[in-house]
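Final report, closing paragraph on structural work. Over the funding period we assembled a curated collection of sequence-structure pairs, and we close with a single example.
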Amino acid sequence: MIVSPDVWLSFLKKKDPEDQRDKINLYIYGCLVSIAFVFAIIRAFGFLAVSLRCFESLYDKVVLAVLQAPVLFFDSNPVGRIMNRFSKDVGRLDEVLPKTFLVALQIILLLITGIIIPTVTNPWLLCFVPPLTALVVYI
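Its predicted structure, as stored:
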């Protein structure tokens, strides 16, 4: 949905200049931009909700593993060090990891979209996609 306004503009580019000035084209473009914005917000909230549930589950498993550790672990590690490690790990899980994963996911989806849209408009590009993909994977 984020790419749909760009697809509409490429469709408009092929029309005559008089047909491009029609107000219905502006309304369609505005609707596509609005829908893309709404979907981006829904995607962000959905992603963060799923991330929160995953991090809670992971944190519960880590706490359970530490609580089941032998007494020697608690004798050799002070409580402050264990607490600092937990707070640092939870901080990373809450702040850094979701943003990084969301950016990586967006880049991958835009890469796939960047391959699909040109190949739909020009099927001859399919001859170049597999060798270039192999080259990128190799690099």
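The mean pLDDT is 85. The chain is about 85% helix and 0% strand. We thank the funder for supporting this effort.
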